[in-house]
Amino acid sequence: MFNPLVSIIIPSFNRGHIIPETLDSILAQDYSNWECIIVDDGSTDNTAQIVNAYCKKDTRFKFLDRPKHKPKGANACRNYGFELCNGEYIQFLDSDDLLSKNKLSSQLKRAKHTNADIVTCKWGRFTTHEDFKIKESLLYKDYNPAYQLLIAYGDLKSFLPSHVFLVKKEIFLKSGLWNEALKINQDGELFCRVIYQSNSIAFDSNCHVKYRAASDNKTSNLSSLAKAIDLTQSWKLIAEYLNTKDKDKFKSYIDFGKSYAFEVLKVNFKNEIFKNFYFYRNQLMRFVKKKINQK
User: Fold this and answer.
1) For 6-212, which CATH class?
2) What is the pLDDT of residues 210-244, one digit of tens each?
3) Distance of alpha carbon 159 from alpha carbon 247, whole angstroms
């Protein structure tokens, strides 16, 4: 019988007002063999009180504090949760996002049928449950080999959020874990490595995840210079990693990432573009040509 343990790993920080929705979506799963590890990053609100209540209600929930020797941040919390998890499959989840009730059961069926290392699903943004809508996407398909998804990202100028992925634990042991130094686009940097290290990706059309649009930790929200710097750094790391594998094959994806970062940075952090002139040289040339043609 195929009944693998799934480890759901959630970082939390001052999420007492919203994390119950996320945990309720886990409790509602029609697949029961899971553990949920919530690692807190030093909350000062009632997050601990609320999550501990869930732990008392259901022992599959585990609530831990980030060890003091670990750097502050969600990435360190995720890595600590991974270190402690026992699952054969991993589901990373933010403390404000939601899973459909059949997410685990349906994706595991697909994993068994295809023997894929990763299973994806549909997704959509929401601010309230009333405005949730599944996003239409040409990315909804199988990929064999798995790295074809990265090529599709570049060709379609699109992406999948990290919580659509259900991944065999062994893949993270090959790819490495979250980069604890990055403050933004850390999911893009990690899952670039995860996807490349996987054999194939299967798409499951029968389930979905919800991505909360009001979350304050989105790539387009460059609220600090530190995040602006890390946005460039994340794409430098992605480019460096993929260029060592096959520079031509991933050229479109890397250019898509650079162009997206360029557009975000030029709003409030133009100096970061000029500091990284060589990295953004193609984007700058296209920008200048466009301005000239508009005159």
Assistant:
1) alpha beta
2) 999 864 444 446 889 999 999 999 999 999 999 99
3) 20
CB atoms within 10 A of CB 63: 19
* The residue type at 167: V
Under 8 Å between Cβ of 13 and 42? yes
Q: Could you identify the residue written with the tokens 């899971």?
A: 34
Write out the two tokens for 127. 């601010």
Neighbouring C-alpha atoms within 13 Å toward the C-beta of 67:
9
Q: Burial letters for 198-207: b for 16+ Cβ neighbours within 10 Å, e otherwise?
A: bebbbbbeeb
CA–CA separation, 160 and 53 (whole Å):
33
Judge residue 101's burial from the number of C-beta atoms within 10 Å of its C-beta, 0-12 exposed, 13-18 middle, 19 or more buried.
middle
SS3 content of the chain, % helix, strand, coil (to 5): 45, 15, 35
CA 42 to chain centroid: 22
Ordered by start, the domain boundaries in the chain are 6-212, 225-294
Contact yes or no for 90/169 (Cβ under 8 A): yes
| Radius of gyration from C-alpha coordinates of the chain | 19
Residue 123 in 3-state DSSP? strand
pLDDT at 294: 79
Pairing mode, strands 61-65 and 34-40: parallel
Per DSSP, 136 falls in state P
Q: pLDDT of 32-81, one tens digit each?
A: 999 999 999 999 999 999 999 999 999 999 999 999 999 999 999 999 99
